[in-house]
Amino acid sequence: MDYRAAFQNALERIHAEGRYRVFADLKRHRGAFPRATWTRPDGASQDVVVWCSNDYLGQGQNPVVVDAMKQAIDEAGAGSGGTRNISGTTHYHVELEHELADLHGKEAALLFTSGYVSNEASLSTLYKILPGLIIFSDELNHNSMISGIRAGAREQRRVFRHNDLAHLEELLAAAPADAPKLIAFESVYSMDGDIADMKGMVALAKRYSAMTYLDEVHAVGMYGPRGAGVAERDGVMDQIDIIEGTLGKAFGVMGGYIAADAVIVDAIRSFADGFIFTTSIPPALAAGAVASIRYLKEHDEVRQAHQARAQALKERLTKAGIPVMPSESHIVPVLVGDPVHCKMISDILLSDYGIYVQPINYPTVPRGTERLRFTPSPAHSDEMIDHLAQALETLWVHCNIKRVGGVAA
Prior knowledge:
Layout: H1 3-16, E1 25-28, E2 35-39, E3 45-50, H2 63-76, H3 91-104, E4 108-112, H4 115-129, E5 134-138, H5 143-149, E6 157-160, H6 165-174, E7 181-186, H7 198-207, E8 211-215, H8 230-233, E9 242-246, E10 256-260, H9 262-271, H10 273-276, H11 283-298, H12 300-319, E11 332-335, H13 339-353, E12 355-356, E13 359-360, E14 371-374, H14 382-398, E15 403-404, E16 407-408
Parallel strand pairs: 3-12, 5-6, 5-7, 7-8, 8-9
Antiparallel strand pairs: 1-2, 2-3, 4-10, 9-10, 11-14, 13-14, 15-16
């Protein structure tokens, strides 16, 4: 077999579909977020404004966070020393887990190397702890959740239509009454910007004796009076069994975690391969996360400013006739509907207008729903919003994308 040709053919298929991904070479500048420098393919440099960062609040640039990380390096060095089970548990990890448990009002928390790993490891481990477990999963759950859920046998998982509580109840009612059950869902769905019905999910879980597993990755830091997420905002955080989150988005650093009752956390810690066999995050990341969480617990005005910026962008783009997809959250998705056009607009925005936003194509979103996904931060000014809206108005005509009733066609 010609192995090289097989790899080349796989790449050519992606190119032919117009969804080959190209990474922009960016360098962020401390204190200047969301501005960055782009190194063009020809080696020249260009200043750009970043419009698609998941560092939603700019915490990765917050002096409080940066200084805490620098201090931790000075005190403890670079690495953690290994896996937590052998030599990699440090005081920084313990302190961060206490901070996360407090944030979510839980007895304990457990750190992972990323949000992806925390979902995959935790969900797959639940099958080991709860024989016969059936997991009910929203069809738009993140790939990391799907990967963890697929660890179980096919007959041990059910997929319900997105945010469809009636369909979920049908599946719950049809399942064996004595089988252990868990409902897995997200708070904010990051590609569409919609939000789950928390109270409805909790009510169904109670009715059918199911546990709940909530991914708050795109909500921690940004919702609730202390930034614990949508569950805190909606007053049901104490009724969610396992809350999963990330340190790599609103908190501005890197890592993932779960928070739950101490016995749940301890069992997952003891059985999860994705925790047991992985080197722990460096002390500097843990220290930065602690500083960021503590800061955001006390600064609700940052969350308010963030929501105001997101609303301002939605209104400005809608006024310009740009097809903003319905969104209940801080996510501002703009429908293009074609991978080639989506990549074209993204490329021109970057090269001609100094606006960086990556195209979102299949498999991240279904074919035919390709989009640009904007994530305004508190640091995006009115001038930046106007510049973006004007650029999109021009490109919607230039790239021959029709607008019918405010929707791309």
